[in-house]
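=== Per-residue structure ===
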Amino acid sequence: MSTPASKIVPFGSGGRIVETACRSLSIAASGLNALEAKFAEREFAATFLRVIGVIMKVRGRVIVTGIGKSGIVARKMTATLTSTGTPAIFLHPADAGHGDLGMITPDDVVLMLSHSGESTELGPIIHYCKRFAIPLVAITAQAQSTVAMAADMCVLMPEVEEACPNSLAPTTSTTVQMALGDALAISLMEMRGFSADDFHKFHPNGRLGAQLVKVRELMAAGDDVPMVREDASLLDATIEMTRARLGGTAIVDRNGRLIGAFTDGDLRRTVTGKQNLTEAVGRSMTLTPLAVGPDELASEAMHLMHEHNIMLLFVCENGRLIGAVHMHDLLHAGVA
């Protein structure tokens, strides 16, 4: 039996494979450009703004749904919305008719993804939204489709060329869906004034969370902060450094304000110079050492350490010494 001719030529040369990969990326980029161009259309931009307005006002959650590849995009969109301050949950259409429709409340809004707009699995969700007056937002490329016609608001996506040589596998169309989801989430994020602080509350673990940790969360504080007065002896300063094991000590005035620092390096230079250990540490200290505030990001503190080739950074609030942070503490916490 003969089979239909295919555009795919197997076992191509390396050059042909690279050419294919680049062509796929070029087609995807064209799709993204087409989506960006849609925002220049008054109707598309107005619809997008209405969707933003509805989501901003909703008292419940954004229920995101889709089937197949659109369902995978919907899951990612849900995760992005949730992590950037917009409560969202994914509803699988296959489970909707088996009890999961109950997760949709009158306070929610449903965001439905379907490139064709004709996925039969979405039917129960559409009927439920109509029956209970749940706002339904469609994201589809077909204006006359079932999903588009049933929706209260329809974000009409551009018709794009799929990167698949047989024009079968969803490729560019899902890339464009993903990009619209990101645009939606970031627009909502800025509308809410969602800060790096807020982001850290939702991402306390992992490398991303480490970059958002504040200095006060990692610094030594209280009795763990090495400090002496400027009239303390070099011996006393050395003992204080040894006690705290941070490789240095702060020098403070009578009001607890940071005025200098004395480190392992300063101690080595002092010993080499054969100074008397009874001399005041103020004569050998480094003046106006670097310091950060407690609410600075730990990643910024790390950058400052790298830039100035230091291992110890003091933490001050209103000029008063309140803590110290060592590079090893930052590295141990995963800050980079």
